[in-house]
Amino acid sequence: MLVVANVVLFLLTRERDAGASVGEADTQMSVSTGAVTSAPPTPASAAPTSAPGVLAVYGDGYAAGNEEGGLGAAGWPVLVAARTGMTLSLHAVPQAGYVSVGSTGQDYAGLVETAPVPDAAVTLVVGSRNDRSADAAEVLAQVQQVVNDVRAAAPSTIVVVVGPVWSDGEPPADVLDDRDAVKTAATAAGVAFVDPIARNWFAQPTGLISSDGVSPTDAGHAHLADLITPWVTAALSQQQ
């Protein structure tokens, strides 16, 4: 719990309101991304002097990117890894969630089971609006299971759970219920929880969300990288 408190305290002093809250692109591509390393920018907080290690990301189409934006080097996971100097291990499947089964036949627990990252310094689990129709109790139980599985695979990793995002400033009630279940489970598990909806990540989606009303553009992925990088930097600081 001390780690979570430190991460949240670090970020409350840094994060400013960003316009907007994004939604999940159900048409996005499956992704498994290998090493991406680069010198981080010069943020308010100094980057670690030693190699930061591996960044594991489990997610849905928002982490995978698609033809509307975020493919390859334009995707926010690649950008975050580059900015923090980390090696990226990305496991993202369209339509997947904690309960929702994605295009590969896997939910998040399945992704963690088939692609564990034992050397991850930081693990992000992101989403998912795909669980909006799922029972809240089932979502809560699955979040706890995924966090437990990640910790079992990588005992030294710092886990950060990023809740579902929405593509405008008016998320429907079932998405809010999904968000609440993820938040409750993450808090109970003692990991940092990031709430894109409450933080208005895509409340002003112009230029950030494509014409399909769901998928982030390349600019939207850059926006996500701006918002997520500080959380990864804060988590890394707990590893020093």
Overview of the structural elements:
The protein has one domain: Rossmann fold. Helix content is 36%, strand content 12%. The protein has helices at residues 2-12, 61-64, 76-84, 108-114, 136-153, 173-189, 218-237, and strands at 31-33, 54-59, 87-92, 120-126, 158-162, 192-194. The radius of gyration is 16 Å and the shape is globular. The model is unreliable at 1-10 and 12-48 (pLDDT under 50).
What does this entry show, briefly?
Helices cover 36% and strands 12% of the residues. The protein is of the alpha/beta class and 240 residues long.
Question: What topology does this entry show?
Answer:
Elements: H1 2-12, E1 31-33, E2 54-59, H2 61-64, H3 76-84, E3 87-92, H4 108-114, E4 120-126, H5 136-153, E5 158-162, H6 173-189, E6 192-194, H7 218-237
Parallel strand pairs: 2-3, 2-4, 4-5, 5-6
Antiparallel strand pairs: 1-3
Helix pairs in contact: 1-7, 3-7, 4-5, 5-6
Structural class: alpha/beta
- Tell me roughly what share of residues is in helical segments: 25-40%
Write the element-wise H/E pattern from the N-terminal end onward: HEEHHEHEHEHEH
Q: What would CATH call the class? A: Alpha Beta
Cα shape: globular
Helical stretch tally: 7
CATH topology: Rossmann fold
CATH superfamily: SGNH hydrolase
Q: Report the portion of residues in β strands.
A: 5-15%
Number of domains: 1
